[in-house]
Design goal:
It is built from 14 helices and 21 strands. With 439 residues, the protein is α+β, with helices and mostly antiparallel strands. The strands form 5 sheets. The chain has an 8-stranded antiparallel β-sheet with strand order 17-14-16-15-19-20-18-21. The longest helix has 25 residues, at 246-270. The radius of gyration is 21 Å and the shape is globular.
């Protein structure tokens, strides 16, 4: 199978539709060698290079006016090492395909986010995460990776091999090179029991520390304009397996959470005054339920309603105060917010620019329905998050720049120095990286 090159690639758009780019050409390499050749040719032509996955980032992290690399031919599992508990996978593999393949092999990632449409390289490069008391982001589960650097050479990285690159490239935002393969630490397939139930905002925030300590994975959604939350607790189980019934799953996960929710958002976008009433109804639509299944069927869920999102990581100890300030702001403002606010946690990790680098973290994600003006809400929320030294998700809307990041990431200079060494000519640069990393 050979790579394909398109001289006129047209316009690229991300999933949310808020980012567009017009690359000079697109390349779909069928091997690491072909990808390396594409990078070298781009250098000869004086073009910048970016790899793009499924476009699930809300930022312009993957946008380019140069060569756009599409990795859909670089997919599949390269190697399973059961003795060491690792799986090496090609960078363009969607998380959904990885999860299905691992399950067939009796294996699983320890933790994952709540959607699985992204490619593995796109997910780790932007710091995609789920929620966990002890287990962290997808990138924190990486045991090794392979990177094509600016001169077209292939660099293998792990704790033992090029460790300074490994420390940074696990969440590299596309600035250090193009990932071609990732080795994940995995474990034997296990069962998770999920308990979903409504709770009041005051009850959740008042017992947040206890809920996090008592559960391996705890998260909740607060519905603006109400005092209502939906909570979810996931814990390992010895079984038996008791998945959500087909009829109930279709009704709650597809009909209510996607179909009805989308219709309600269309109404709210057309008539904002109806949103508080819709929020009160939505927050009570889902009843309590428990089920037990393999990990990816518990961690992930379908997300068919399109939106724009901002998410910040704050120190976990600051979560309750930050969230209460957000609620007070919404209650006092004329804003009408139809999407729930999502709250998750992660333990500290050792990845240079991870949002949880060096500190236990809590994540607050705010959303607006696609096509609805979001700037006023996100700006007000961002002022609150940054007052608590928040770190924005690298793939979600924010307005921060290199000066800000140098203040909230103690190892920021370590990352930029490594970038200077690996990509001095900024072959992998774009406007977004210039803003967040400096020149």
């Amino acid at each position: 199978m050979r790579s394909t090159v398109s001289a006129k690639s047209g316009t690229w758009r991300n999933w949310a539709g808020n980012v567009t780019a017009r690359p000079a050409r697109e390349v779909t390499p069928a091997s690491v060698e072909e990808l390396s050749a594409a990078v070298r040719r781009a250098a000869e032509d004086g073009l910048r290079v970016k790899a793009v996955g499924t476009g699930h980032s809300f930022t312009a992290a993957a946008a380019t006016d140069g060569v756009l690399i599409r990795p859909q031919l670089l997919t599949g599992i390269r190697r399973i090492d059961r003795d060491n508990g690792t799986v090496t996978v090609e960078a363009g593999t969607p998380l959904k395909r990885l999860n299905l393949a691992l399950a067939r092999e009796g294996l699983s990632l320890t933790n994952m986010g709540d959607i699985m449409e992204q490619t593995v390289s796109g997910a780790v490069s932007t710091g995609t995460h789920g929620t966990g008391r002890d287990s962290a982001s997808i990138a924190a589960q990486i045991a090794g990776l392979e990177l094509v650097t600016a001169d077209g050479s292939v660099l293998a990285c792990s704790e033992k091999e090029n460790p300074e690159v490994f420390a940074a490239a696990r969440i590299g935002i596309g600035a250090l090179g193009i990932i071609t393969a990732i080795t994940f630490s995995v474990e034997p397939l296990f069962l998770l029991s999920a308990r979903e139930e409504p709770m009041s905002f005051d009850e959740v925030t008042g017992s947040f520390d206890e809920l996090c300590a008592e559960n391996e994975h705890f998260e909740f959604y607060w519905f603006p304009h109400t005092g209502n939350c939906n909570t979810k607790r996931n814990n390992r189980s010895v079984g038996p397996e008791k998945p959500v019934g087909t009829v109930r799953g279709l009704y709650e996960d597809e009909f209510l959470s996607n179909g009805v929710f989308q219709a309600a958002n269309y109404v709210g976008r057309a008539v904002p005054a109806t949103i508080p009433s819709i929020a009160r109804i939505s927050s009570r639509a889902l009843s309590a339920r428990t089920y037990t299944d393999i990990p990816y069927k518990v961690f992930t869920s379908p997300r068919r309603v399109r939106f724009t999102e901002m998410e910040y990581a704050v120190p976990r100890a600051a979560l309750v105060e930050t969230l209460r300030e957000l609620k007070d702001m919404v209650d006092r403002s004329p804003l009408r917010i139809s999407f729930p606010v999502e709250v998750r946690t992660a333990p500290a990790d050792d990845i240079t620019l991870s949002t949880a680098s060096g500190r236990d973290s809590a994540y607050i994600a705010v959303h607006m329905f696609r096509g609805t003006p979001y700037q006023a809400y996100f700006s007000a929320a961002e002022r609150i998050f940054t007052a608590h030294e928040g770190r924005p998700h690298w793939g979600k809307v924010h307005t921060r720049d290199a000066e800000y990041f140098a203040g909230v990431y103690p190892r920021f200079g370590e990352f930029t120095a490594l970038r200077d060494r690996l990509d001095p000519e900024r072959r992998f640069g774009n406007d977004y990286l210039r803003r967040i990393l400096g020149v």
